[in-house]
Specification:
alpha/beta, 20 strands, twelve-stranded mixed sheet, two-stranded antiparallel ribbon, about 725 residues
Length: about 725
């Protein structure tokens, strides 16, 4: 019966793959045809840390006039990278300007009299530039908006307390689309620099997502206005750029460079704001932490949502996930590991009997590999939160699932998150893919589970013998995928990217060794959050652990530990966690406003947790105590339990930024009580066979941290808050 079902599914897949060839492909009209050569540009030279490095003066003349194009080359973030996919049409800004006739980039078509596009190519665009322009929207308090194109459309609206007219300025800066949103009166329609309703306060909107570079990025004005309609209605102005949305790039140096320029454009038009507060979720949250650390003064306060400390240290445990899933499904008896306690002992993340929407990948892959069919009951955040992440982040051969680039460009390009860091971590003019920062040499997966009795010694040893690591970047191959027409999710025929993971034989499966020089460059160039926190910060999460969402709350406490170890206090850091049905943003803006106005934390700026009705469950200094700081659980922790991750379960620190551990011999680990209360002496030979290079000693600092001189399980450098560059390029 099962065989019949699988045969039918494979027949359906075959039919759909044939049908796909006859199905119009979105984006194909504006596909990048050829890659332009890179032009050398200035990259800031960092010898100590980006935070202590002066930024160059920006000689661009601001404001950028309407009809003109903003600066193309970054001020200090290095070369413009190619290929580069244009999103001006999808952002409602029309086709990009022609900048070459050599078929570099995307085609630009002659427009018909009705505004539609002909089939006649008039040139090509490699940089996706558009002139600055104005757009107008009416937005109501429900967040619904309508674009206004003329005064007659405007006259249909009776402006009152429920409606607000917003003027948007949009164009390109550093090739990315910038947006300035200003609330205006009806009489200010078709004006440029008026701002009678502005309360002199500014919001910088950051946005999240997991993406790699090579895209300009789409800006959705209606979505932006919906997110910030209440603040706009209250007089705030809002600025943003597609370079500050991590769905399009995790190049934090470029994000910072662009953000400064967008803010300069705003200030040239309207003057300096009283303050600038950042807001944004996930990648937009960590961007605030990094920008506040690396370039003080860009934002004066931060409201990170669903945040992580940074992206590079997030990959440390996130890229473990597919190793585990490959082990469960293809390297062991899956039924044995379909156990909540065992999975949590290894992964640290939450799990539950929540069926994955793409559960049928498992029987398809079992059939293709000759494995016996088994349908798991227990799914973890590693499946629900991180499915496909390793391919996107770590595989230079994968490319985009959307057809944004020609096959020629696909084959010529190294695609990965590491490539976003290439200008920092890679030698100039290197032809190979950028080095990976990820490492698991000596990592004892499930060590805490062994010590607590959730894993047997035999299970622990089998897991670590077979788990392996990710193949070298040059050895990785694309996923085997089949696409259904009209369906976004492809069929993964190499589930968990198992073909890119080392396999055991007579020797244990090979582990991955990071490029230490690249890791140290990432530290120096501010890609790792070190814990500098000099501005008011309210870190907000919905509690989503029961949904196995990737935005687990332990990340807020990893960030907090780094702040505490770096600065010795938490004067500027608050954590608010709420039931998923309530979002305390209005309270956060109110608290931040009082905090910045008085230059001291108000009484309502306390750590707290909220129920679904918005009522405060508990608040105060100790409400979030827990395992992360070795304290008895506080009132909020009891209500919203904090989970861990795979590297914490392997004995690592909760702060979570050890890229490359120092190792000790297995014999010494046993003698030092690393496995206590478990006596691993009878398994010494197997331990030595499983870990021939030794095991991680987390009492010693990260080998990749160029600043480290301490050994208290802290992976944080001894830089001081006073060591800030006096010039940040804001002249």
């Amino acid at each position: 019966m099962l065989l019949l079902v699988l045969v039918k599914r494979l027949m359906l897949i075959t039919f759909c793959s044939l049908l796909l060839t006859c199905t119009p492909v979105p984006h194909s009209q504006f596909r990048v045809l050829n890659t332009a050569p890179e032009q050398q540009s200035n990259r800031i030279n960092v010898t100590n840390h980006l935070r202590t490095t002066p930024r160059p003066a920006d000689n661009t003349q601001y404001p950028i006039a309407l009809g003109d194009v903003g600066p193309i080359e970054p001020l200090y973030a290095g070369n413009n990278r190619y290929p580069f996919s244009c999103d001006t049409v999808r952002s409602g800004l029309g086709q990009p300007l022609v900048d070459n006739q050599q078929a570099l980039g995307t085609a630009v078509f002659r427009e018909n009299s009705d505004g539609s596009l002909s089939n006649t190519v008039i040139g090509y665009s490699k940089d996706c530039l558009v002139p600055s322009t104005l757009r107008y929207f009416v937005v109501n308090l429900n967040g619904e908006s309508e674009e206004i194109t003329d005064s007659s459309s405007l006259d249909k609206h009776q402006f009152d307390s429920n409606q607000q007219l917003i003027r948007l300025e949009q164009g390109t800066i550093n090739r990315h689309i910038y947006t300035i949103a200003m609330p205006i009166k009806k009489t200010e329609f078709n004006t440029w620099r008026t701002s009678s309703l502005w309360n002199k306060k500014l919001i910088y909107q950051f946005a999240g997502g997991v993406g790699i570079g090579f895209r300009q990025g789409k800006v959705n004005p209606k979505k932006l206005l919906q997110r910030r309609f209440e603040q706009l209605h209250n007089g705030y102005a809002v600025i943003t750029s597609s370079a500050n949305k991590t769905s399009y790039t995790y190049n934090m140096l470029l994000a910072e460079d662009t953000a400064w320029r967008v803010k300069k454009q705003f200030e040239a038009l309207y003057g300096k704001p009283i303050y600038t507060v950042g807001i944004g979720g996930s990648g937009g949250g960590l961007a605030q932490y990094l920008i506040a650390q690396n370039s003080p003064g860009l934002i004066d306060a931060a409201i990170p949502l669903y945040s992580y400390p940074d992206m590079v240290s997030q990959t440390i445990y996130a890229l473990d996930c597919d190793l585990f899933n490959t082990y469960y499904h293809f390297k062991s008896d899956l039924a044995n590991w379909d156990n909540s306690d065992k999975k949590r002992a290894i992964e640290g993340l939450n799990n539950a009997e929540i069926e994955h929407k793409s559960w049928f990948y498992t029987p398809i892959n079992q059939f293709l590999t000759g494995k016996a069919f088994y349908r798991p009951k227990i799914y973890s955040e590693c499946v629900h939160g991180y499915f496909g992440l390793s391919s996107l982040v770590n595989n230079p051969a994968q490319g985009f699932l959307k057809p944004l680039f020609s096959q020629t460009v696909n084959h010529q390009t190294n695609w990965s998150y590491w490539q976003d860091l290439a200008l920092i971590t890679q030698a100039p003019n290197a032809a190979t893919s950028a080095p990976a920062l990820w490492d698991n040499q000596g990592v004892q997966y499930g060590l805490n589970g062994l010590k607590q009795g959730s894993l047997s010694a035999t299970e622990f040893l089998h897991l670590n013998y077979h788990i392996g690591g990710w193949k070298a970047q040059a050895e990785q191959r694309p996923e085997q995928l089949l696409f259904f027409p009209f369906v976004k999710t492809p069929i993964w025929l190499t589930q968990w990217s198992r073909h890119n993971i080392y396999v055991a034989g007579k020797k244990p499966a090979k582990r991955t060794v990071a490029n230490l020089a690249a890791v140290r460059q990432a530290y120096r160039y501010g890609q790792v959050y070190l814990g500098f926190n000099s501005i008011p910060t309210i870190d907000i999460h919905h509690y989503l652990e029961d949904q196995l969402d990737m935005h687990h709350i332990s990340t807020s406490f990893a960030t907090r530990l780094r702040i505490l170890k770096q600065q010795g206090h938490l004067k500027n850091h608050r954590i608010w966690i709420a039931d998923k049905h309530y979002t305390p943003l209005n309270e956060a803006f109110s608290v931040i406003d009082k905090w910045l106005s008085t230059q001291q934390a108000p009484d309502d700026a306390s750590d707290r947790c909220f129920n679904k009705s918005g009522e405060i469950i508990a608040q105060g200094e100790n409400v979030w105590h827990g395992d992360w700081n070795n304290q008895p659980a506080g009132a909020c922790t009891k209500h919203f339990p904090i989970y861990t991750n795979s590297r914490i379960q392997a004995g690592g620190p909760f702060s979570g930024s050890i890229f490359k551990c120092q190792r000790i011999a297995v014999e010494k680990a046993v003698a030092n009580g690393v496995y206590a209360p478990i006596d691993m002496t009878p398994y010494l030979a197997e331990l030595k066979r499983t870990f021939p290079d030794g095991v991680c000693d987390y009492d010693k600092p990260d080998l990749g941290n160029p600043f480290n001189v301490i050994s208290d399980k802290s992976d944080l450098p001894p830089l001081k808050s006073s060591q800030v560059a006096k010039s940040n390029g804001r002249s």
